[in-house]
Amino acid sequence: MANEEELFDQENTEPEQPLSEEDASIAEQSAASEDEKKDDLAPSSSEDKGAALRVDGSEPDDGRAWYVIHCYSGYEKKVRYNLEQRIETMGMKDRIFDVVIPTQEEIEVREGKRRSIERHVFPGYVLVNMILTEETWFVVRNTPGVTGFVGMGNDPTPLRPEEVQHILKQMEAEAPHVKFTFREGERVRIVEGPFNDFHGHVAEIDVDRAKVVVMVNFFGRETPVELDFLQVEKA
């Protein structure tokens, strides 16, 4: 089974097509039809959220699934805004339920100070929970900033439930991810603890435990010191 990173590499390279008069007419008719019945069919926002973001990755049995759209890196929030506006104005709330940018809180150290940043887990990609039809495909695909669906041609590939579960659990993790970009042999400075302000070089990196071993000169002898990622910075 392909993991989500492999799936995200299958980006669609189809060229962006201008909106034809026929497509515009279809969109207008769809919006008018949906406006008449959305009051009866559209679930409340709280129901949308609960149904779309199930932690176990399962979906209600109405044909909805999670799809991946591609956009230019750095424009994810703009694309989400544009798509949410189109969902509202074109009466698609009962078929396009949620638009999610996979992010993760990350802690980094700069000049001895910790700061929290929001990192995009998959830069250039946005998740859409929807029932795939010709109309919903049209609305999403022609959103400004969207360059295509992940999948083959006009047949987008839905995410597997276990892939959705993994992504959502990453986003809901209580402990923030610690950013660490050092390499073995790189010179660093210890910024807290008994060896505060000591300099040394990275000897080992344990990503799973978020630990690093730094060799420092202590009383004229190279001494290994195990530290948290947040206790060191580039020298």
Automatic annotation (TrEMBL):
UniProt domain KOW: residue ranges: 181-208
Gene Ontology cellular-component terms listed: cytosol
GO biological process: DNA-templated transcription elongation; DNA-templated transcription termination; regulation of DNA-templated transcription elongation; transcription antitermination
Region called Disordered, residue ranges: 1-59
InterPro entries named in the record: KOW, NGN, NGN-like_dom, NGN_dom_sf, NusG-like, Rib_uL2_dom2, Transcrpt_antiterm_NusG, Translation_prot_SH3-like_sf
NCBIfam families noted in UniProt: nusG
Family per record: Belongs to the NusG family.
Name under which the protein is recorded: Transcription termination/antitermination protein NusG
Protein source organism: Anaerolinea thermophila
